[in-house]
Amino acid sequence: MDVKATLDRFLLELQRKNPATVSNLKKIAAFFLSDDRVGRVITPSMVMDYVISRRSSLATPATINRELTIMKQFFRWARLMGYAD
Predict the structure, then answer these.
(1) Domain extents for the chain?
(2) What Cα–Cα distance (Å) separates residue 81 from each residue in 1, 15, 51, 84?
(3) C-beta contacts of 13-22 below 8 A and 24+ residues apart
């Protein structure tokens, strides 16, 4: 799965939805698409790195949970659309 292309496509699908969801997805994408991660598979340890990063930036637990929910939606969507296993 090309992570960047898949995230871009998912973002297009979300444009008509809640602007806060789109904003959160952009934050998530910025983390996973940073230079040292581009083109790599997103692993559970990378998700944990994201959570640790958000905790150290003083994001509230509720915010982190919302962002994890968006990630779950993305992975479900990617699997449903045939972009991921």
Answers:
(1) 3-80
(2) 11, 18, 26, 8
(3) 13/77, 21/70
